[in-house]
Amino acid sequence: MTATEAPTTAREYAPTERTVPTRSRERASYDRELVHSILDETYLCHLGFVRDGAPVVLPTLYGRIGERLYVHGSTGSRPLRAAGRGEDAPGLPVCLTVTHVDGLVLAKSAFHHSINYRSVVVHGTAHQVTDPEELRTALDALVDHVVPGRAADSRPGNAKELAATAVLRIDLAEVSAKVRTGGPNDEPEDAALPHWAGVVPVRRGYGAPVPAADQPASLPLPGYLAALQETPC
Length: 233
Description:
Layout: E1 28-29, H1 32-40, E2 44-51, E3 54-65, E4 68-74, H2 78-83, E5 92-106, E6 114-128, H3 132-146, H4 159-163, E7 165-171, E8 174-180, E9 198-201, H5 223-228
Antiparallel strand pairs: 1-8, 2-3, 2-5, 3-4, 4-7, 5-6, 5-9, 6-7, 6-8
């Protein structure tokens, strides 16, 4: 299967022992469309794995192509070395998470304070991408995942740069989403307390692009960057 091909899939991911939460199970979802929408709305993930018997969690960029995530790294990074290289490499067991904070939930009591959020947790085995065609496709996807349209408007990596860049591939198979919405869940006896309660929405956005110091003044702002300012991040 190539990087651009997507397997035939059901509407939902199958729940597993690792993807069923022990608390607030009603907030869990295995809906494929919901999972994809949460993943596609941002580009920063946290990649967890075990190294020398101790847990390690690293923030890094990712991109999605169909039912695969591609995670960026350098050839000397710990997860890349641990995953091994080549088709016969065992890969690296990982847990990848993505979270959006949508609101601060302020309750009458300190105990019931919370946040509104959307999150995805992916369990799987990460493998290093070694096929040159898949690697280039994955790198383009990573660039476009951060700024849609940017891959076609930049110089592709040369041989030296590609040799110093590595990408991990993780199949979306053991996946769950979790979502909280709505206001605080205060106790009925706290309703009359003189404390403000409600939700403070969290909004994120992009500022105006700042050109590089050596940028020619005559070079116009690309349309995809102008559109980016209207897009939540």
